[in-house]
């Protein structure tokens, strides 16, 4: 592993062999031949970032890569090396505080990763060695070890299945942690292996580790005494992946072939790229502005100092003659030293503590999402999950939402609705649904229908019972059968299963729905035993079919088949799949009878499958059997050869019917989509489903309205013109661009035509094949042109539907929009492993805790139980997070400008001598203690608008769009406010000092009294300014605001009231107490605070509550059904509970 990493780092080409040889149980194939064990990596999994030894240097290096931290380190070193006017403690202590807090946070997070790694690496496993079962830690497994795994245990590494406790030599696994699919998959042992693994002498030759979960090619050579070695082909059906879980099988034994970081799970781990929020980018831009201000101030003061000293008598007055060393110093070196001293003196204009406050605000603020009771789902007994707290404010800036369909917009809970046999529709009563305003039922369904004919009906139902990979799990627990739907009551009669209660296990929820649908019509699948499938007919006869071959489903063929032999000796092929896959392979006269029902069901939003069959003669079967066996033993191009045999067998079939399965909409899916569109967010649906089903779902979710004109760019529309596809594509893109972009009236930024009834709304539909043509056009110029046209059309449509999408295409769509003009903020939401790529690609990724495993949840930034929770997550939490942190950033720059501007002005009155205006204790404590807690509490608890109002008025979300509160205009306002307050503080106190006698005894105040009065006015003003901005008061706000002011007063008395032995000079000894003995000082402090805040007070008094700057109470609906305007009932709420973010007024 180390060599491989070094080669990759140095850019060398690594010479790796194409395959690896593994000795099963570390036994040589020949007794005379000694084994030289190949070197493979161990089975340790490492996801942590630090170790005990490298934590300190590595963490410090990473932290000082941040510009602000590095800047303050330089300032600190300058203070240590150069004779500066302030102590190194003033910069060193805040920097140490920031570095320490961040290091503790990152160290804790890495400790959790170490803990998770240890749980995996130290997990006890059973290894078979020399006929004994030995307990080992998982990390000590080596390639070639024979490992035993029991039911419900997770496979510790990638294994080849050698032995199973099941009679049929299979086992069942769930791969939810790998590909998100929670359904059971069947895996098979290697044929002809020894029952006693201790005597098994075999070698495995297989490909080197690669990340594709569904591809594996290998061969196993089994050596027997006095016989030629037998070669057995190995494929994905023999491979058990690390992270998968054994189900419905007591135990299995397998040989380890890939371990540790070479397992497919580890190779598929895609570390999350560092996502940066728009707020962080704004902070960096503002930081550069203030850095320029800092350098300008230092240059001005340095220049004016030497201009002033050039005047006669100013450079070397009689009372302060230069030493010989000072006279010998180089002028330019002295100027540079003075410049550095001024930089140190003014460096507090850059708020280093802002970074740690922002970190704390994000970290603590994320708990409000986790604690929100509205996000708790009683069904799964879980709430929301925050994986990344760095993007809280991005939730308030989303412009595009990319959503999956199955499991996200819909429940992924399949229910058999109806079937069509030979053109006749069949429904059972308890699944009746309204179609076009009337109810369709077909009477008792467990009796002969006499529609398509008994023979056709039974053939269709047998196909549903046999063409699948469903397994029956026996259970001794009473009542489990009822939960699984095996005791359904149809027409008052109960269909009794066999003696034991059984549950269904399948790789797809569609298959279970179809098997249960056949049960409702009287045909029950009893299970698979030793390659024999048993079904119970509606005449209560048990029929047995020998399962000869399974032609597995794959997304390219989009169909699956089984070849079975009945008791009478007939060989049948049953096939089911998508209509586009089945129709070309059946007799065309049969298609028209079924096509109408399939299209109607798709339009109604149902998932449709067509069912076909074929009787195979002895010659046909012998040819198919030989072809399948030969293809499965091929080491090269195995998949292509299998595909060729599949296509050859699955031709000339008879179409017997079609099924309709419903995947119901998620709870409140339509209301959520409507609210997002009302907030100005554009919703794109990216799905792998067929267009008709997805389009129906979009109508049901109100993404498409009846008035919406749909612009369709699919394979079907490309073939309509009768010309080449690329020519037709170009023509349609230009036509749609003219409609949606050129002929559309201009609109204001941030307002889409969705909200204007005067303009035509457009919806856009594209499929995966056409998208590939757009993104991968024949020439580079065409590709760029097509992309731009496509993007402009989509951006001017209210909603976009992308169907038949591959996972990679979903990510490409997100990336294309993310990198488009204006860099809009994107959000992807999905529930399955096929959504992970787009979740990782978007600015914000959200996982749904659905039925397709938890891979989407683990790779997401936020996870919620249901789609309906997205509304509150964005419109309430996102809105509030953004407003809070935007105010925090602007306020930090403002209060530091107020702090340092008087220091700059003071230099004009002290001969540019770098004399500090404030004491070192005040310089150090200002950002750490005196002003940090109020803004932190504000940024966690502020609710400028009630949550109910935010949810009821989605348009409020638009008012903060495009990073509105962190643009240059509000930044300029806060900067000018800081300049105004700084000027007022300094010159107000200077006006007071124009009267020399400020005390009763005639004693005058000194420069430290001057600075202390300015600092007192400063601390009270910036704190009370925040109090005026607060709309939502809690006891915590009261405690930190008034507590901070009291702490400042207490600290000033305490610091100046004691002689501290560790200080060489004590500048503030009794200064604060002496200052407060003067009535004039009291008067000027109160007067300056009032004058500073007067414009703000007047603004609050005379400004009408409007927009997001007013707290609004939830509007009350009148008795007559009218709805009161929220603005008419707006009023500030001063006190609310802290226990939750509800809107209870105290």
UniProtKB/TrEMBL annotation:
Q: Which residues form the active site?
A: 404
Swiss-Prot/TrEMBL keywords: ATP-binding, Cell membrane, Endoplasmic reticulum, Endosome, Lipid transport, Magnesium, Membrane, Metal-binding, Nucleotide-binding, Phosphoprotein, Translocase, Transmembrane, Transmembrane helix, Transport
Q: Which Gene3D superfamilies did the record assign? A: Calcium-transporting ATPase, cytoplasmic domain N (3.40.1110.10), Calcium-transporting ATPase, cytoplasmic transduction domain A (2.70.150.10), HAD superfamily/HAD-like (3.40.50.1000)
Which organism is this entry from? Zoarces viviparus
Bias-annotated ranges (Polar residues): 1115-1128
Q: Which GO terms describe its molecular function?
A: ATP binding; ATP hydrolysis activity; ATPase-coupled intramembrane lipid transporter activity; magnesium ion binding
Q: Which residues form the P-type ATPase N-terminal domain?
A: 33-91
Renumbered residue ranges of the record's region Disordered: 1109-1129
- Has the keyword Translocase been applied to this entry? yes
The residues that hold Mg(2+) are 404, 406, 831, 835
Q: Which family does it belong to?
A: Belongs to the cation transport ATPase (P-type) (TC 3.A.3) family. Type IV subfamily.
Instruction: Report domain P-type ATPase A positions.
Output: 124-201
**Where is ATP bound in this sequence?**
404-406, 511, 553, 576, 607, 687-689, 804, 810, 834-835
* Predominant cellular place of this UniProt entry's protein: membrane
Pfam families the UniProt entry points to = Cation_ATPase, E1-E2_ATPase, PhoLip_ATPase_C, PhoLip_ATPase_N
How does the protein associate with the membrane? Multi-pass membrane protein
Regions crossing the membrane: 64-82, 285-308, 339-358, 921-941, 971-993, 1008-1027, 1039-1060, 1080-1102
Can you name this protein? Answer: Phospholipid-transporting ATPase
């Amino acid at each position: 592993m180390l060599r491989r990493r070094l080669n990759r780092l140095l850019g060398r080409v690594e010479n790796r062999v194409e395959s690896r040889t593994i000795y099963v149980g570390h036994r040589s194939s020949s007794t005379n031949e000694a084994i030289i064990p190949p070197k493979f990596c161990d089975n340790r999994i490492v996801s942590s970032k630090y170790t005990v030894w490298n934590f300190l240097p590595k963490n410090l290096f990473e932290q000082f890569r941040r510009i602000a931290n590095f800047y303050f380190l330089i300032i600190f070193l300058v203070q240590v090396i150069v004779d500066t006017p302030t102590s190194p403690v003033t910069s060193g202590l805040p920097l140490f505080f920031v570095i320490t807090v961040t290091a503790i946070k990152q160290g804790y997070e890495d400790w959790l990763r170490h803990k998770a790694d240890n749980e995996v690496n130290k997990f006890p496993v059973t290894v078979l060695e020399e006929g004994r079962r030995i307990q080992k830690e998982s990390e000590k497994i080596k390639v070639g070890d024979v490992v035993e795994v029991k039911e419900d245990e997770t496979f510790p590494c990638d294994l080849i299945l050698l032995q199973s406790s099941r009679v049929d030599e299979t086992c069942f696994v769930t791969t939810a942690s790998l590909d998100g699919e929670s359904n059971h998959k069947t895996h098979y042992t290697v044929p002809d292996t020894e029952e006693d693994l201790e005597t098994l002498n075999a070698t495995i030759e297989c490909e080197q580790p690669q990340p594709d979960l569904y591809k594996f090619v290998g061969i196993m050579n089994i050596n027997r005494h006095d016989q030629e070695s037998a070669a057995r082909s190995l494929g994905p059906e023999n491979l058990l992946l690390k992270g998968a879980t054994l189900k419905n099988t007591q135990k299995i034994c397998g040989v380890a072939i890939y371990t540790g970081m070479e397992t497919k799970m580890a190779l598929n781990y895609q570390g999350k790229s560092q996502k940066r929020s728009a707020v962080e980018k704004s902070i960096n831009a503002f930081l550069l502005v203030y850095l320029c201000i800092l350098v300008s101030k230092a240059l001005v003061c340095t220049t004016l100092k030497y201009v002033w000293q050039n005047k006669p008598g100013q450079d070397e007055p009689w009372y302060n003659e230069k030493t010989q060393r000072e006279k010998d110093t180089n002028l330019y070196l002295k100027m540079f030293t003075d410049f550095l001293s001024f930089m140190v003196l003014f460096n507090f204009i850059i708020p280093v503590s802002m970074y740690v406050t922002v970190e704390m605000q994000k970290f603590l603020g994320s708990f409000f999402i986790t604690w929100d009771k509205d996000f708790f789902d009683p069904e799964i007994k879980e709430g929301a999950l925050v994986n990344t707290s760095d993007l809280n404010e991005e939730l308030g800036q989303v412009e595009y939402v990319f959503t999956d369909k199955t499991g996200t917009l819909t429940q992924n809970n399949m229910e058999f609705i109806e079937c069509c046999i030979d053109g006749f529709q069949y429904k059972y009563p308890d699944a009746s649904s309204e179609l076009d305003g009337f109810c369709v039922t077909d009477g008792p369904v467990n009796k002969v229908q006499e529609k398509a004919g008994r023979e056709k009906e039974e053939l269709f139902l047998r196909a549903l019972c046999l063409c699948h990979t469903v397994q029956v799990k026996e259970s001794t627990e009473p009542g489990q059968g009822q939960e699984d739907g095996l005791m359904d009551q149809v027409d008052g009669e109960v269909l009794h299963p066999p003696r034991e209660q059984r549950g269904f296990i399948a790789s797809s929820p569609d298959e279970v729905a179809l098997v249960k649908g056949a049960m409702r019509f009287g045909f029950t699948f009893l299970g698979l035993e030793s390659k024999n499938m048993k079904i119970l007919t509606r005449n209560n006869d048990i029929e047995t079919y020998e399962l000869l071959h399974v032609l597995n489903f794959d997304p390219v063929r989009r169909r699956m088949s089984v070849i079975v032999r009945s008791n009478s000796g007939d060989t049948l092929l049953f096939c089911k799949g998508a209509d586009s896959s089945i129709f070309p392979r059946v007799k065309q006269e049969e298609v028209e009878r079924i096509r109408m029902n399939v299209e109607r069901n798709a339009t109604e939003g149902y998932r449709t499958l067509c069912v076909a069959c074929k009787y195979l003669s002895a010659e046909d079967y012998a040819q198919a059997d030989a072809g399948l066996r030969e293809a499965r033993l091929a080491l090269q191009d195995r998949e292509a050869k299998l595909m060729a045999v599949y296509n050859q067998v699955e031709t000339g079939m008879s179409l017997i019917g079609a099924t309709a399965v419903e995947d119901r909409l998620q709870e409140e899916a339509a209301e959520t989509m409507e609210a997002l569109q009302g907030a100005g967010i554009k919703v794109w649906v990216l799905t792998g489903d067929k267009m008709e089903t997805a389009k129906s779902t979009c109508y049901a979710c109100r993404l498409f309205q009846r008035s919406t004109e749909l612009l369709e760019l699919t394979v079907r529309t490309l073939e309509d013109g009768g010309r080449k596809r690329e020519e037709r594509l170009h023509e349609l893109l230009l036509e749609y661009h003219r409609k949606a972009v050129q002929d559309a009236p201009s609109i204001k930024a941030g307002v889409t035509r969705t909200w204007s009834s005067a303009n035509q709304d457009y919806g856009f539909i594209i499929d995966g094949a056409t998208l590939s043509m757009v993104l991968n056009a024949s020439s580079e110029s065409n590709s760029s042109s097509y992309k731009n046209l496509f993007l402009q059309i989509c951006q001017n449509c209210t909603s976009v539907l992308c169907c038949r999408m591959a996972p990679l295409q979903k990510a490409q769509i997100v990336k294309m929009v993310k990198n488009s003009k204006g860099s809009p903020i994107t959000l992807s939401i999905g529930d399955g492993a096929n959504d992970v790529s787009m979740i990782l690609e978007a600015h914000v990724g959200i996982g749904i805790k659905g039925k397709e495993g938890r891979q989407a949840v683990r790779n997401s930034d936020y996870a919620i139980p249901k789609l309906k929770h997205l509304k509150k997550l964005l419109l309430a939490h996102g809105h509030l997070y953004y407003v809070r942190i935007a105010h925090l950033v602007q306020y930090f720059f403002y209060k530091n400008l107020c702090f340092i501007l008087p220091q700059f002005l003071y230099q004009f009155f002290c001969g540019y001598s770098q004399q500090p205006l404030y004491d070192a204790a005040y310089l150090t404590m200002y950002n750490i203690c005196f002003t940090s807690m109020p803004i932190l509490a504000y940024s966690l608890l502020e609710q400028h608008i009630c949550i109910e109002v935010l949810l009821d008025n989605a348009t409020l979300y638009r008012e903060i769009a495009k990073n509105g509160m962190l643009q240059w205009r509000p930044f300029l306002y806060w900067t000018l406010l800081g300049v105004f307050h700084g000027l007022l503080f300094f010159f107000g106190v200077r006006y007071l000092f124009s009267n020399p006698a400020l005390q009763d005894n005639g004693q005058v105040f000194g420069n430290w009294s001057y600075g202390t009065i300015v600092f007192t006015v400063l601390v009270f003003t910036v704190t009370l300014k925040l109090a005026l901005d607060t709309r939502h008061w809690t006891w915590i706000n009261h405690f930190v605001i008034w507590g901070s002011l009291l702490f400042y007063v207490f600290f000033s008395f305490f610091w100046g009231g004691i002689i501290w032995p560790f200080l060489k000079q004590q500048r503030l000894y009794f200064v604060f107490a002496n200052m407060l003995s003067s009535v004039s000082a009291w008067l000027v402090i109160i007067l300056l605070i009032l004058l500073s805040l007067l414009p703000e007070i007047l603004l609050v008094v005379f400004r009408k509550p409007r927009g997001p700057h007013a707290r609004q109470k939830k509007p009350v609906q009148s008795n007559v059904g009218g709805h009161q305007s929220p603005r008419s009932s707006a009023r500030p709420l001063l006190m609310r509970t802290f226990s939750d973010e509800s809107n209870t007024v105290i």
